Amino acid sequence: MRSILHLGYIDPMIETERLILRPHRLADFEAWYAMFTDRELFRFIAAPTLSREDGWNRLLRYAGHWSLLGFGLFAVFRKSDGQFIGETGLADFHRGLGEDFDGYPEAGWIVSRSMQGQGVALEAAAAAHRWIDETLSPKRTVCLIGKENLPSFRIASHLGYKPFAERNYKGSPHVVLERVK
């Protein structure tokens, strides 16, 4: 693992057996946007259909996390060929879900449909959690998972998350989970 200063923010790069994780860059936009417009990928996630403008603004928000908070979401690439395959990490999205959720680093992960079922999301999310544990040592992290999203519940369990409440988020029932160190 290494971290360098890039354009005023921390720019960590993590390598696992199969993956490379690093903060998103402007050059990632087309591959990232293509993934985010795959509606089947988002069947369990309360994410809007993004226009190119909305997608661009979201990518800039990701850079803002790194610049202002020192942590954020990582773009995930397959090490063998450098292909963008998803994202993972921890962020602060200010979702308005209450004092027991907002203000804590919130974990998230998503990989393209072609990479699902291969353990890639868990490998990436575990690497991002090791990074934040070593770098910022948060005592508590949280995540939000749609009640139907069984694959994400399995990943969350492997990472040490436990459910502590249910909330409605953007009109859908979700479970809120925490990982306490």
TrEMBL record:
Coiled coil: none annotated. Residues 19-181 form the N-acetyltransferase domain. Signal peptide: none annotated. InterPro entries: Acyl_CoA_acyltransferase, GNAT_dom, N-acetyltransferase. PANTHER family: GNAT FAMILY, PUTATIVE (AFU_ORTHOLOGUE AFUA_3G00765)-RELATED-RELATED (PTHR43792), N-ACETYLTRANSFERASE DOMAIN-CONTAINING PROTEIN (PTHR43792:SF16). This is GNAT family N-acetyltransferase.
